[in-house]
């Protein structure tokens, strides 16, 4: 892992009318790591992701990519940097096959004809690069795939485009135990392949199984971003539900305009039962 985060946000504010949803948010995501973004319903996770992916403009704050200041004014800017988001609804078309879905809107052509062999080869290589062996045929309609396979295709689609940062919105929310394990393995592999991965999840088992760092949002403030090995399940739950964890030595009551991002726990309990 490099010391410079691939993505760094500083002082991000975002309001909808009179409602301030993000307040002075700092956040980092490192190449080769999974960063879990946690927070209760309404904490601001989706809003933060939409700011990163260029869907929402921010009111204030700075974005650094590879250590350099960048502006993200729309989804194209985010895509040009290599930022891809896999949303919970996956946005796959049931009536198209895997290759068609992976290249939807970005089809390869030779002249005016679709270059099917190249697309098929690139799709196969991408899935092989992710060690995905559960898909029988690339020409299978997505409607015939299991939930886990659909998630896999959506993730593969995101990494097909030289992505450097992939944000996954609750990728295991609709999955059973075995499929969840497969998708988490894939999430880990993305990071092991050098991508920065941001995982939004409400599931603490998933978070602790796969993340290197945990970033906790509480009422629009980043109350902690710590190494997963330095925090326990119950401390994360405290951060999510109360915005603080006494045993972590984080701010007792985060004041507006402050945040605990980057705070190293004063009293970490490495290896504590999770
Ligand atoms: N377009 C909008 N206009 C007004 N308020 C909004 C808008 N989008 C989000 N909000 C508000 O911003 C707050 C944060 O919402 P957001 O969806 O980012 O939270 P979240 O952490 O992703 O929640 P969940 O886990 O339920 O998806 C909520 O209070 C929500 O009502």
From TrEMBL:
Record's keyword annotation contains Hydrolase: no
UniProt cross-references to Gene3D superfamilies, sorted A to Z: P-loop containing nucleotide triphosphate hydrolases (3.40.50.300)
Record keywords: ATP-binding, Nucleotide-binding
Chain positions covered by the region annotation Disordered: 248-274
Key word ATP-binding present: yes
InterPro entries attached to this UniProt entry: AAA+_ATPase (IPR003593), ABC_carbohydrate_import_ATPase (IPR050107), ABC_transporter-like_ATP-bd (IPR003439), P-loop_NTPase (IPR027417)
Domain ABC transporter: 7-244
GO molecular function: ATP binding; ATP hydrolysis activity
Protein name per the record: Monosaccharide ABC transporter ATP-binding protein, CUT2 family
Lineage: Bacteria, Bacillati, Actinomycetota, Actinomycetes, Micromonosporales
